[in-house]
Design goal:
CATH class of the largest domain: Alpha Beta
Largest sheet: 4 strands, parallel
Helix content: 40-55%
CATH superfamily of the largest domain: Aldolase class I
Oligomer: single chain
Structural class: alpha/beta
Distance between the termini: 33 Å
Number of helices: 16
Shape: globular
Number of strands: 10
Length: 401
Amino acid sequence: MTDDAIPLQGSSNWRSNLAAMDVPAHISTDSTLSTALRMLIEQGRIDEDIGNRMFSHDSLFALTALANMVKQARFGTNVYFNDNLHVNTTNICVLACRFCAFRKGPRHSDAYELSVEEYIHRIEPYSEFINEVHSVGGLHPSWTIEHYEELYRETKSRFPLIHIKSLTAVELKHIAKRSNLSIHESLRRLIAAGLGSLPGGGAEILVDSVRDRICHGKESSQEYLTIHQAAHELGLPTNCTMLFGTVETTAHRIQHMMKLRNQQDISGGFQCFVPYPYLPEFSRLPDAQLASVNEILRVIAISRLMLDNIPHIKAYRMNIGDDVGCLALQCGADDIDGTVGNEEIMHEAGSTTPLDFNAEDLAGLIYQSNSIPVKRNSIYSEFALIPPPIKNDDISLPIAV
């Protein structure tokens, strides 16, 4: 199988591609991983028991090798990114989740709420270079749907070619409640105003006993899924996420993936899964377990193997950093979040990932992982291959320690 045999959007024949691959001995001689491989080829799906066994598997190398095989069966060596900008609308929030370092009370000296013009002003310097603005924020105590309609209409009027990816599930719940509207009606109005897709933030762990400990007062697990289903039913694509390394068990992580997979079977609108570890700085969760680099790569690999019906797995470099992100592209991830100007939420929590990358820098990072950078639009329907840099000497992968 050659890379040019795999379409830029990925292969629908990934199971046949996987079956045709040579299987390394460290996979074929391992009972758990060989069973997982056989299930993927024959059924296209790994069961919950195998998922739990993979979290305790003693060979990260073999596990990530299998995940990379599945990634290559689907996408070859293609890795996707886009030119995007994060603009957070407000950090004022009526909730106070224990893991969140971004939220501020309305009287805090660092609290802010962007007017429509201030929001436009933040996009303006990047408007010739980006194809997406990603906007989430706190649950503002007074904004209703009319504020967001004005925001999206004005943004699309000024920048018609920029896709608006905005609002987490709990933001939608909050806006709908404040506006005395159903979720469906709220989404219809926001789509008409210019909303193009939903990010996946706020999923945390879709187990309510965990949510009660880390984000009490947010939407329930089922509400998160129901809100995304409503978006899918209206033709609005969404992403989904998982925050790991707080107080959850590995079994909770598999339960989370199973719920997303089951929802995707029903509504089919998840484009991409974004797992990211908890960053502890400036938050209030002293009992968090925290995730090592090995654990991050294990989660990404298992995500690729478990979520057979969610096509893309993202290495979210704003959270895990460029070096680990580069490694993740060899462990099952096929997407690395884009140029991401002006990110706040992860940086408030302690991220030190640079914010001055352009498309060429990001393409260079992808080439360092022996992958081919493919610039995409927000809904994975338009693609452009990025040619390699003229000089590409002494490239090596970072080393996980």
